[in-house]
Amino acid sequence: MGRPVKGDHRYEQEVRSPEEHEEHPGKSLITTSHGVIKRWAEERGAVPATVPGTEHGGRPGVLRLDFPGYGGQDLQHISWDEWFESFDARELNFIFQEHTKDGRQSNFFQLDNPHR
Questions:
Q1: Could you say which of 42, 48, 108, 114 would form a disulfide bridge with 7 (CB–CB 3.0 to 4.6 Å)?
Q2: pTM
């Protein structure tokens, strides 16, 4: 599942399925694929979360991923369904890295709103 990536993303490689990977370590990737995002998060032990008090219209507000050992005590865990419903409704892009330039696993990601 996913929708077309929107916005100007000349510097990122688009990934459409969990079988696709970076062209080289340190490359920024972009996707809207639920499978790619979920696989990336689960490989790092991260779970879907939101910042409490930011919800609006019955949906989670600020979306985050809670990584083990990174002080996510201020985050509220939510289901993947809730996370993706808000992600899709806001037409966000998921920008991320699989590995740092030196080949170590990277936890870098950001949510991009192409409408801003």
A1: 114
A2: 0.85
